[in-house]
Structure formats: C-alpha cells, structure tokens
Design brief:
The structure is a single chain. Helix 5 links the parallel strand 5 and strand 6. The strands form three sheets. Strands 1, 2, 4, 8, 9, 10, 11, 13, 14, 16, 17 and 19 form a twelve-stranded mixed sheet that branches. Strands 3-5-6-7 form a four-stranded parallel sheet. A three-stranded antiparallel sheet has the order 12-15-18, with no helix packed on it. The protein is an alpha/beta fold and about 425 residues long. Helix 7 packs parallel to helix 8 and helix 8 packs parallel to helix 10. The chain is built from twelve helices and 19 strands.
C-alpha cells in the first residue's frame, strides 16, 4: 500500500483558470538627499544588468522641507535626470515626517508620526509634485509610506484617511494627471485598503511581503497570500478600489543569521513564482539591491536584504532574479497552473508547489519545488514543447533530456531547492 501511495498519480488541484496579465519588477533602494550621484549611477547600472527599469524608494519630507516653508529639490532633480539617462522610471513613496511637523506617536521617533497640520502636508505634496512635473520618468507618488501603524494613528488628531485625501488634493492641484497610490500597507489588510481607496482613486494598490526575512518569522511565502488575502483583501480591492492592479511594493529575504546565499536565491525563486502566479499581482518590488554599508546598518535586522553585498559583488540571488526577470517580466504573461498534471513516481511529495507561465513568444516556464520533501515527478504539459532547458539558480542553462514533447520525466526534487525549466514551443527558437 505504501509503495502504491508513493507512486500513485498526484494531481495537485488548482482553482485558478489561466489568466493573462502584465508583470513587471521594481528595485527598492533608498537614498538620502545629497547621496553621491556617482554611487547612484553604479546602482542604476546594476539595475540595467538585472533588466529592471523601475525604481522605488523614499522621498523624505524631512529631507526636502527640513525647516517649515523652506523647500529644496535640487538633488532630487539631479537624481531624476540621472535615472532618465539610464532609462529608469521612478515610483517614489512619500513620507518621513520632519520633526517640526510631527504630532507625536507611540515611540520616540518623529519620522513615522502623523503630521499635526494637514495643511503643511498638503502644501509639501503640492510643491513636490509641481517641482517634479518636468520629469517624464517620474510615474507616480505613493502616500504615506510606513506610518507608525494604521492602528497607532486611530484617534489621533490626524488620521490616515484624512492624510491621504489631503495629499491627493495637493498632488492633483499641481498635476491633474499624476498617478497617486495609497501607502502604508505593511500587509494585505482589507480594512486599511478600503479606507485608502475611499480617499485615493489609484491605478494600483500595494503592500509589503516580507515573510521569512528574520529568524523566527513562521509564515512562509507560499502561505502569505492566505484566505484573508483571497477572501478579504482581493474582494475589497474589487469592490472599493475598482479592481485595481495589486503591487507588492517590497519583498526581501536577508542573508546571515543562519540563512545562506543559496537560501536567499531559493527564496527569491519561490517568491517570484508564487507572487507572479497570483491573478491580481502585477508588480513585485525587490528590497534591496545592495546590502547596507557598515556605517548604515542600524539594528542589523535588514542589513543584508540586498541582491549584492555592500561593495556590489553579486550574491547568488542576483543571478536568480536576473534569470526570472528575463523569463517572467515579459509585460504580458499567462498563468497556466491548471495545465499541468503532476505524477509522483518515487518518494513522497510533502509540500509540493508548481507554477506554469506561458510567455508571449509561446515559451512555457515551469517552476517547481517541494519545501519539505524530495519526490521524483513526471510532469505532463497540456501544450506541447520542442525542447527543455533547465536553468540553475546562477542562470546557467542545462539541457534536460527526459522530455518527449509533453512529459518531463524523472524530475527529482531536493528538499527546498527550486528547479526552473524553459520549454520552447514546437518550431520555436532555441531558448
């Protein structure tokens, strides 16, 4: 009976029909005003190497209006011009309350406090959007990133809903066509996004996805988009936010603390496959491009989130993300998970995950892993293929011979290790 169970057909049930959507990747990397632009240029060159053309990062109110009524956007203009020369679009998030404007929060920091005077906040947003209007590569502004917390603002003189409404008013008075996104979502919170969409008609809504980033965080990325997301958050987006696109504005996994570079690379393969396979998610923000420099590490909990080390030497995950950006961030892609049949031929599938994507050029990308088991599989495709190339986590191609045009045979999984396959269409070019 055990042998029969091990070798029986194991068809993983899916409920999602094939869906075609836009997909893009962004890099999250913060800079303070005055940061050496030559150093920034090196980061932009890394982004070009990755194939990523969208930057996300903070525009700090405290940096650009350090004293009430005194605005300084000179560095920001130079930054935007530099990004334009490298073909990089900018989607900044705006926040970080200056001390002079803060109303007091639940800790001793001013940056995450609500402003005590919404008129000053609205004036800042108006001046910022007006100043940046000449930069065609500034595509949107996200308001108000990383507040003390939604719950901490409840009952304060400034609630988050009013802040969003006044920020939007300031932005639209400077540029009626500017794209504004609601900020502050540390997770996919239905109540929070309902309040946000009531005050901002955004083209997208965004939240963080940072499970597993620190020792002791129990939620794995495969379970992060849980019933609360599917049954609460997404219906709220459909109902209150006019079904806008969903972005993950920051996802990341830090090395160190017992987590290796291979762990990070596998996490990014799992994460990009999991998030891109969701029907609503259209952009994934990668936090961060680089590890923090030794003098900028703070408490160290997120110092090693980068795809490279502080000196820009590439970690293994850099090559993994580069590979998956090429394979998946093709503007339009079809998620076709239900076109797969999985047969376990040896061992036991314990926590098996698989996703199939169909590119505009008809190439299929199969990504499969088992978090806790090491089964052998036969994988049957609905759409035929001509040949299969497997890619290792460092991006190296390896021909996969056990393929007859429909079935990938004797595909052995190692526990927690992701396998990535590129399946060329019949008559198509070699991948």
């Amino acid at each position: 009976m055990l042998i029969a169970a091990v070798t029986a057909l194991a068809q993983v049930a899916t409920t999602q029909r094939p869906v075609t959507k836009d997909v893009s990747v962004a890099i999250v990397q913060d800079y303070r005003t005055g940061h050496d632009l030559e150093d920034v240029q090196h980061d932009f060159e890394l982004m070009q190497e990755l194939g990523v053309s969208t930057w996300r990062g903070s525009v700090r109110w405290a940096d650009h209006e350090s004293e009430r009524g005194r605005y300084d956007f000179a560095w920001l203009h130079d930054f935007a011009d530099l990004a334009a020369r490298h073909g990089i679009a900018l989607r900044p998030y705006v926040g970080y309350t200056p001390e002079w404007a803060a109303s007091g929060g639940r800790d001793d920091q001013a940056w995450n406090d609500p402003p005590r005077d919404l008129g000053r906040w609205e004036a800042f947003v108006r001046r910022l959007v007006s100043a940046m209007r000449r930069h065609a590569n500034v595509r949107s502004f996200e308001l108000y990133e990383e507040p003390d917390s939604p719950r901490a603002w409840e009952g304060s003189r400034t609630d988050h809903a009013a802040l969003l409404a006044r920020g939007r008013a300031g932005a639209r008075s400077a540029n009626r066509r500017v794209e504004i996104l609601p900020g502050g979502l540390a997770r996919p919170d239905p109540a929070w996004i309902e309040t946000s969409c009531r005050n901002i008609r955004a083209s997208a809504v965004a939240f963080h996805a940072l499970p597993e980033r620190a020792t002791g965080v129990p939620v794995e990325i495969e379970g992060y988009l849980d019933a609360g997301y599917h049954d609460g958050f997404l219906p709220t987006v459909q109902r209150r936010c006019a079904g806008r696109a969903v972005w993950v504005n920051a996802a990341g996994f830090a090395t160190g603390g017992g987590r290796s570079e291979r762990d990070q690379a596998n996490w990014w393969a799992r994460t990009l496959a999991t998030l891109v396979a969701d029907s609503a998610i259209q952009q994934v923000g990668i936090a961060n491009l680089r590890d923090a420099a030794p003098d900028q590490r703070g408490d160290g909990s997120e110092a090693n989130l980068g795809l490279t080390r502080a000196d820009r030497t590439r970690k293994l995950a850099f090559h993994t993300v580069k590979l998956l950006t090429v394979l998946l961030a093709t503007k339009r892609i079809t998620v076709a998970d239900d076109e797969l049949a999985i047969r376990v031929t040896a061992g036991t599938a314990v926590a098996l995950h698989h996703h199939l994507f169909v590119r505009p050029d008809r190439r299929q990308v199969l990504i499969v892993w088992d978090l806790r088991g090491s089964p052998a599989l036969d994988v049957t495709l609905t759409r035929p293929g001509a040949r299969v190339t497997e890619y290792t986590l460092d991006g190296r191609p390896v021909p996969f011979a056990q393929f007859d045009g429909r079935v990938l045979r004797r595909l052995r999984l190692a526990r927690g290790h992701v396998r990535i396959f590129d399946i060329a269409p019949p008559g198509g070019e070699r991948p």
